[in-house]
Amino acid sequence: MMLQQIVSQKRRRYIDDKFNIDLTYITDRIIAMSYPARGFESLYRNNIQQVKEFMDCKHPQSYFIFNLCAEQNHQYPKDFFDFRVFNYPTFDHCPPTLDLLCRLVYHAYQILQSNIKNVVVFHCKAGKGRTGLAVCALLSYLSVIANKKQSANDIIKYYGQQRATNNIGLTIRSQIRYVNYLHVLFQNNLQNNQIRQIFIQPSQLNVVGIKTNIQIKNNIIITSNRKGQNYFQNTINQLIINENDEKEQQYKIKQFDIENTLILKNEISIEVPGHFYIYFWANMYINVNNNIVQFSDNEIDFCNKKQIKGAYFSLILKNM
After folding, report:
1. What's the pLDDT tens digit per position in 234-270?
2. What is the pTM of this model?
3. Which of the following is catalytic: 69, 124, 136, 303?
4. Which domain holds residue 68?
């Protein structure tokens, strides 16, 4: 038990006379937990048998589990929980597609509406990031249909307060961005199937404002595939120096022209390997402005914040 508590870190645990598990009631009918593990992994994560006993004790025949793990080694027989398990596979540290996220929200909402005793339980591996995105998406929908004056940030903050002892739940910026996407869609009474399907063709990627002499490797990944299979090689690695009069500091622009034909649909990730590693997801229907997709340093996942502080990244698109 000591090892499980160490691994759960700052996630709030459910503790009473009978149970001590990495599980949190976000509301009385929405539960977040870490992966219900078997074998060796159950020594430091939730034990699947204990989770089963908890659910049968607290919510007999009325709990429905949403497994958000895409990893094959984090699946389990659905009959263990009496076939009340639904898979919405999402890769670690990534948001799902808006389509998948919308389907998950409507599915969970229907379960809650069908019986007042029903509860929905979300888990990924640690039960924090992907789980938090799903929980916040559902809370957003419930907030909008109840006409509550809550922002996406209010919902994200509430989730953090409920799930973590340090009040910080969602930290991956792409996941936070997708909560904001959905909140806008729900507020405008849009379902994902009402979003126009778009195709985009990148022509240039600019990395602007790097303040240190950093090398970017030639392989940059831009893809709309969650498995990251679309690559392009930069044909121009041009370094442009601009003077900043106010700070008398040189800012560098890395410019990558994309000559080969690369057509993407709806959602993209950009991954820039090298000395500083950049990675993020975005939805093109929402983020594109005059054929430019631009993100500042505080919107990027997984990067050395000191080296890119004040930088921004822009993807120039061709007209389709």
Report:
1. 443 433 434 443 443 445 566 777 765 677 777 878 7
2. 0.85
3. 124
4. 2-193
